[in-house]
Structure prediction request, 838 residues.
Amino acid sequence: MRLKPAAIGRRCALPVAWGAVVILFGSIESSTFLTAANFQTIFGSQTVLVVVTLGLLIPLTAGDYDLSVGSVVSLSAMVVALLNVDHGWAIGWAILAGVLSGAAVGLANGALVALLGLDSFVATLGSSAFVAGVVLWISGSRTVGGVSQDLVNPVIVRQLLGIPLGFYYGFALCLVLWYVLEYTPAGRRLLFVGRGRSVSRLSGVRVERVRLAAFLASGTISGVAGVLYAGTTGGADPSSGATFLLPAFAAAFLGATSIVPGRFNPWGSIVAVYFLVTGITGLQLLGVESFVQQLFYGGALVVALALSRLVDGRQADNLEG
Amino acid sequence: MSAAPAALVARHVSKRFGSVTALDDASLTVLAAEVHGLAGENGSGKSTLIRILAGYHAPGPGGELEVSGRPVRLPLRPGDSRALGLRFVHQDLGLIPSLSVVENLRITDLAVRRGWRISWAQERRRARETFARFGVELDPGARVADLRPAERALLAILRAVDAMRPGQGLLVLDEPTAFLPKADVEKLFALVRGLRAAGASVLLVSHDLDEVEKIADHVTVLRDGRTVGTVAATEARRGQVVQLVVGGRLGAPVARRRSHTGEKIVASIEQLSGEPVHDLSLDLVGGQVLGLTGLIGSGFEEVPYLLFGARRARDGRLTLAARSYDLAGMTPDRALRAGVALLPADRLRDGCVGSLPVADNVTLPVLDRYAARLHLDRGRLLSDAAALLTAFDVRPGDPRLPYRALSGGNQQKALLAKWLHSRPPLLLLDEPTHGVDVGARQQIFALIRRAVEDGSAVLCSSSDYEQLEAICDRVLVFSGGRIVHELAGEEVTKERIAESNAVSPPRDRGSRPTRAS
Prediction:
């Protein structure tokens, strides 16, 4: 299909905006911003956010919210740290347990939403608080450090082309997710379930199973993000997982305005993550205080929603009359 | 009485939706203090006209409206009709089931009220006074969900009436009797007569010509968006109104084969029950189209969904291709695997996803055919979809366009392509040409005919009599969840169907189990 210039413009709007931000800060703060070290930080520090965002995309595509992804990051990281540090488990088994704890939360969310028919927003709001409580309980509200170097090395210490390996894990997951969403029957079904429950059901798609699987996937992937968090920081603390929730939503919705406009899509989300982080890093280099992070993420989420509503509204108008 | 100006005069009202003309220079005059019937087939423009009066739709240029003798500018905005003294009770009644009678009664009032305190004791007292004034027995504290259908209808009407100035205004009732048993219809009519006696006018939109004739002073008939006549109900023989409703429309019906002997039974339905269908049994013969019709709410429109498992049946069995299925445990997924396909009436809610490409929509039920290990063969999917669109004459035939970019007729053809290309032994259709222009309609009839000739058994529920005449070999007329008339062969004409529908059948619901074959 040949694209009209306007459509190409929409697809590329976010990458172009990212480029503009780079040029802007580059011209103001060239001595500190345009350095290899700065870009290594930008790319290397956001693996956990990238992975959480990618996990979140799956239920969002199926038309459900998952507000528990942040708490699951805390849970999984804490499970890894406690089992490895306090109980002396081998790191491999601790990682497996961390991922499984995320999967268990995802399965519970899926059961509440798909099988009992609860509203996903409220159900995962509840499960998120519940999981946060569990994390405080099992950790005794303390930070656990000293996770095995066997986890820390392959995430943050070892580098390829000057960027920590963790970055490439997020990139690989994005590749897999893009393939699954775009080129498998499962991905098509997920999309149809999100866009038209009734259409899907009447076309023979087992809607409840698809929604359950979506929650299971996002729980599991958030579990993986928790493992990466433990690897990045060398430990776990009971609350910082929650700080990923809003940025992940902002990146997912902002990403849905670009690359494949109107659809939650992995590449758009990754670009959105780095766009947001670049902006925040640049502002911080200019000496703006740290509250800018909140302003940026919150503002981006609302702007992204408004943008996509404007685009949709225009399409709907064209069809009337 | 000639001194009193007409309650409502509408002239030259037109409305187009995209390429479909819903109203074409229609007119309507409702006199002061009269009950006026508005009749016509589905799609004749009744609802569009009502929605224009209610301010939901803006009419095309040239329309004129007078209310109580004063000219009013079109289009109306949503609050305007209320200020003019027009009140509407739509078919869905607009009640909130989980709230109480008095809360529902005051809902519009509360929406505009400025004060800050509600005295519920006082509201209940006022509600009781209103009910007493109209001789209706309702408990203000009852939950609407617990009321009988007739009580709900009365409540909705009283809510509209309560806000009218006494002896003035126009109350519009859209199919108010559709869900009501006979005795309750009388109760409702008594209320309408009371309003007329008090000086208000009532516009009654109804399929049921029998009922219209019983209560209306005049009847206006719409057909294809035009006003084809207004007759005094006293002199209106039913035949005359039926003639007006059906008309001598153009468009030769597709040639049919009738009187099949020795065709084999493809599917049998036994003792299907599920709200509101009671104990329905019928056989479907290969190479035939069986039509189901009746008034809205009579149950005919639920049968396809109950058979497909889209709505849960209480009981019943379906036998298809020598296998038997329990209908109480049917799901769309199982129905599809059994060889049943359903073409739902609401294309964009149940049929296809408007924002996704046509190719993805039409291949959704057979997606697994394009799965090679972990991969989806998009190239083959697109070329198959393109071939399918050509075969079903969907224009434009680009499978990558979003579904909603197609016109109504082409959307419907694409939907047929989605379901027919897998050659289901049993095809269920619900209003297959709803909102489709005349040309596409004939093409859709031809496509259905082709499926039949390939040996599918087809069941089509519709309230469009011309459509039933054009494609059906046999038509079953429903009332109260049961079959009350059966028309076959040469009897399948729109006049006969309209007549069977207009004659209110006995509604005492005898215990006779329905069997048609």
Summary: The CA atoms of residues 180 and 187 of chain A lie 5 Å apart. Chain A has a mean pLDDT of 86.
